[in-house]
Design brief:
The complex is a heterodimer.
Chain A (H helix, E strand, L loop, with lengths): L5 H30 L5 H4 L1 H38 L8 H39 L2 H7 L4 H39 L4 H11 L2 H29 L4 H32 L2
Helix pairs in contact in A: 3-4, 3-6, 4-6, 4-7, 4-8, 4-9, 6-8, 8-9
Chain B lengths: L11 E10 L2 E11 L4 E5 L6 H8 L7 E6 L2 E2 L5 H8 L2 E4 L11 H12 L4 H14 L15 H12 L6 E5 L7 H17 L3 E6 L2 H7 L2 E6 L2 E6 L1 H6 L3 H8 L15 H6 L2
Parallel strand pairs in B: 3-8, 3-9, 6-7, 7-8
Antiparallel strand pairs in B: 1-2, 1-4, 4-5, 9-10
Helix pairs in contact in B: 3-4, 3-5
The chains are: A mainly alpha, B alpha/beta.
């Protein structure tokens, strides 16, 4: 214990945290490798996956629609405020659409999903572990990775891109309403600018790729944290917090990397 | 008279088993045999590794040394697929029940049938109702686990454990936390199911009275090995101090009251 004091103690602690982190990462990768054979559930028991998409999707849908609407309206006001200085307010539709489709849609949806569905996923799996439900399944010769974890992981992975698309669509519609009714812009110009300026291969695909990656990472972190949680109430609560923190940071970090590659090319 | 028949192989035999958890010894040189068709009770104080033993028999843990053989197959040597095939023939009753909380009673009992068989829905319904009737909970089929009392949850878990008609059921602390009536029900069920369905039962418990009432044969564990074994009558009559301490529920004896500690006086006077 005395060795944990002073400078040496600090160095020790840094070392321990680093080792813990690396070990954790390793466990997460091994866990993922064990999870992959369970993906066959899509073929054998598609209903399990569909049910989970419904659960996670519905869980997050309301918050995604409401946030999307507000973000769209804010973008319209802020964008107009800047564009009007250069007499470029006719490009508002383009500005809003590009911001949402390329950046805000995928990222904000991912953050909302992590907070709402990701944490719920971790808590659910963690509690199933704490109450011996997963152990019980194993003793009934049912693989919990295949029966419980894989459907939830796949559902999360699929749900995020779908929700991101809804987020962007709602945001654009809300921006349109504000632009036309409040700011007095012409509706036709709003859409026309968007139509000519947004590229399917570049902008929409770029956003889609981002949200697919975010969906994968968040679902992975959420199910791993739940499965790796200490089977106590404290363990589950810590795991839930960790899911939100790590997946939010992962989303922002990955977003920077992917944006850099997409804008500057490989 | 030795109640164990000589000619048949035991269903489960544990040979020279050792197991460690974080370098702490749980078992060392553990030997025991579970006879077919009998109710075998494994007793021992809390923390002696009774549940761990069930997990070793069920293949959820791997022994550090020695072997566990179930129906002629060495559990730790089985590939995952074979292990799962073996587990389908073993029912396990967890202390908490381990019911799936998002499914109702009917679906919980149907769960192993739906996962492992392709029976038509009408047949599954018949089987589930039969199992629920056995534990007296046919009327509770639409309740959810959260709506059940502890005793009811354990009976549902028992119905689920026998839904695939296993050759053996392992009971982890089946009497813990039950009122006297609930205990009586579980005791009756274990005995009846064992005899009527021709199963083999392993009961892990520290309840001396219930264990004596139900057991054909008792193993008493301490310090990672079997310290006494015999029929309930033989155990009650035993003069060995460890056995008498446990069967009589005496607070101090060969099993020390105190957790190992430094000298009391030195501890109090020290900083």
């Amino acid at each position: 214990m005395d060795q944990d004091r002073g400078v040496v103690g600090h160095i020790r602690r840094v070392g321990r945290y680093t080792l813990d982190g690396v070990a954790r990462l390793g466990r997460a990768v091994v866990f993922f490798a064990r999870l992959v054979p369970g993906f066959s559930v899509v073929v054998t028991r598609l209903s399990l996956v569909v049910q989970q998409i419904y659960m996670t999707g519905v869980l997050t849908l309301v918050i995604v629609v409401v946030s999307g609407a507000f973000v769209g309206m804010i973008l319209a006001l802020q964008g107009y405020n800047t564009l009007v200085r250069y007499d470029a307010q006719s490009s508002l539709g383009l500005l809003v659409a590009l911001s949402l489709v390329r950046e805000l849609g995928p990222v904000l949806t991912a953050l909302l999903f992590a907070g709402r569905a990701g944490s719920a996923l971790t808590a659910e799996i963690g509690l199933m572990k704490a109450t011996e439900q997963l152990a019980g399944m194993e003793m009934m010769a049912v693989d919990p990775l295949k029966r419980v974890v894989a459907p939830r992981f796949l559902a999360g992975w699929v749900a995020v891109p779908l929700l991101a698309a809804i987020f962007s669509a709602v945001g654009i519609l809300a921006a349109y309403v504000v632009a036309v009714s409040d700011l007095g812009l012409d509706g036709g110009v709003f859409w026309a600018q968007m139509q000519s300026g947004v590229s399917v291969t570049n902008d929409i695909m770029g956003g889609a790729i981002k949200s697919v990656v975010f969906g994968l990472v968040i679902s992975w972190i959420a199910v791993f944290e739940g499965y790796d949680a200490r089977p106590t109430s404290e363990g589950v609560s810590r795991a839930t917090t960790r899911t939100v923190v790590s997946s939010s940071l992962a989303v922002l970090g990955l977003d920077f990397i992917m944006t850099a590659f997409m804008l500057r090319g490989l | 008279m030795d109640p164990r028949p000589i000619r048949t192989q035991p269903l489960v035999s544990v040979h020279d088993l050792s197991f460690y958890r974080d370098r702490r010894m749980i078992f060392q040189g553990l030997n025991l045999a579970i006879e077919r068709g009998k109710v075998t009770v494994i007793m021992g104080g809390s923390g002696v590794g009774k549940t761990t033993l069930l997990n070793l028999i069920g293949g959820r843990l791997t022994p550090a040394g020695g072997s566990v053989t179930v129906d002629g197959q060495q559990v730790s040597a089985l590939a995952r697929r074979e292990l799962f095939r073996l587990r389908r023939r073993i029912g396990m009753l967890f202390q908490s029940g381990a019911l799936l909380t998002d499914l109702d009673v009917f679906e919980n009992v149907a769960f192993p049938l739906r996962e492992h068989t392709r029976l038509p829905a009408s047949l599954i319904r018949h089987l589930v109702l039969m199992k629920l009737e056995l534990v007296g909970l046919r009327g509770a089929r639409r309740l959810y686990p959260a709506e059940l009392s502890g005793g009811m949850a354990r009976r549902v878990a028992l119905a689920r454990a026998i839904s695939l008609d296993p050759m053996m059921v392992m009971y982890d602390e089946p009497f813990a936390g039950l009122d006297p009536i609930g205990m009586g029900v579980i005791t009756k069920l274990i005995r009846e199911l064992n005899d009527a369905l021709g199963m083999t039962s392993i009961v892990v418990t520290h309840d001396v009275a219930e264990a004596s009432a139900i057991a054909d044969y008792i193993y008493l564990l301490d310090q990672g090995r079997v310290i006494a074994e015999g029929t309930p009558a033989a155990m009650q009559a035993s003069t060995a101090p460890e056995v008498r301490q446990f069967m009589g529920g005496l607070p101090d004896g060969p099993v020390a009251f105190h957790y190992p500690a430094a000298d009391y006086l030195a501890d109090l006077l020290g900083s």
